[in-house]
Design a protein that fits this description.
about 240 residues; alpha/beta; five-stranded parallel β-sheet; five-stranded mixed β-sheet; 9 helices; about 35% helix; disordered C terminus
Length: about 240
C-alpha cells in the first residue's frame, strides 16, 4: 500500500539541502519539495537551473545571495504572506551553513511564518564523520576572515577549545592557513577533506608542517574542510 505523503504547507519557507558533489545525494523529500513549491529562491539561479534540469523540474526562481539578502527577504516574506510555498537553496549543501539563509530565516520566524528544514548534504557533517577525529564535541567556525590580523585573532580565541575544530577554507588560502596553524596549534593533528562525495574525494591527515609538504607537490582545487584535533593536554584534563 502506497503511503500518502502530506502536501507542502502554504506560507512556509523550506530550507532544501542540495548536493555538494554527488547528485545522488539529493534526497527524495528535497526533490518533492522543489517540485511542489511555488517558487525557488536560489543563491545562483544558473547553478540551480542546472540541478533542476538534471531532475526534470521546472519552477520559477528568484536570486537570493549575500548582496541582495535584505531586499529579497522582504519579497520572500510578502510571498509567504500570500500563502506561497518558498524553497530556499544554495549552490551546494545546507542553506545557512556558511551560505545565505540565516537572515531570511530570522525574518520569517519573526514574522510568524513557518520555517521547515529539508535536511541533506552538508560538507561539515560529511567531513567530520569520516575524518577519524572525535565527533562527540566539535566547534564549527566557518570561513575565517581574509585579513591576517583578524584570522590570527580568531584562531587564538579557539585554540584552547575542547573537541574538534572545523572550518572551511579556499584552495587559494590553504597554505597560509596551514602556516598559521603551525604557529598557533603546533603539532596538533589536522585533517584536510576535499572533493567530498565526488570521484576524487580525499582526506589528508598530518601535522600542519607535514601537510604543507604534501601540498607543495600538488595542485589542489575546490574548497577544503579543515579539521583540527583536540589539544592532548586539554583532552587529558577533561
Amino acid at each position: 500500500m502506497e503511503t500518502q505523503l502530506p502536501p507542502l504547507t502554504p506560507g512556509t519557507l523550506y530550507l532544501v539541502a542540495t548536493p555538494i558533489g554527488n547528485l545522488e545525494d539529493m534526497t527524495l523529500r528535497g526533490l518533492r519539495t522543489l517540485r511542489e513549491c511555488d517558487v525557488i529562491a536560489a543563491e545562483d539561479t544558473r547553478r540551480t537551473g542546472q540541478l533542476l534540469k538534471h531532475f526534470g523540474i521546472s519552477k520559477p526562481m528568484i536570486s537570493y545571495f549575500q548582496f541582495n539578502e535584505a531586499k529579497r527577504s522582504e519579497e520572500i516574506l510578502q510571498r509567504l504572506a500570500r500563502g506561497e510555498k518558498v524553497a530556499l537553496v544554495t549552490d551546494a549543501g545546507t542553506p545557512g551553513i556558511s551560505d545565505p539563509g540565516e537572515r531570511v530565516v530570522q525574518a520569517a520566524r519573526s514574522g510568524g511564518f513557518r520555517v521547515e528544514a529539508v535536511p541533506g548534504p552538508c560538507a561539515l557533517v560529511a567531513a567530520l564523520t569520516a575524518s577519524g577525529l572525535p565527533t562527540d564535541e566539535f566547534h564549527f567556525i566557518g570561513f575565517l576572515p581574509h585579513k591576517s590580523g583578524q584570522r590570527r585573532k580568531q584562531l587564538e580565541a579557539v585554540k584552547d577549545f575542547a573537541g574538534t575544530l572545523v572550518l572551511y577554507e579556499s584552495p587559494y588560502r590553504i597554505e597560509k592557513l596551514l602556516n598559521e596553524l603551525n604557529e598557533i596549534f603546533g603539532e596538533r593533528q589536522v585533517v584536510l577533506a576535499r572533493e567530498l562525495t565526488k570521484k576524487f574525494e580525499e582526506f589528508l591527515t598530518g601535522t600542519p608542517v607535514q601537510l604543507l609538504e604534501v601540498l607543495k607537490k600538488r595542485a589542489l582545487k575546490g574548497e577544503f574542510v579543515v579539521l583540527i584535533g583536540q589539544n592532548v593536554e586539554i583532552g587529558a584534563g577533561k
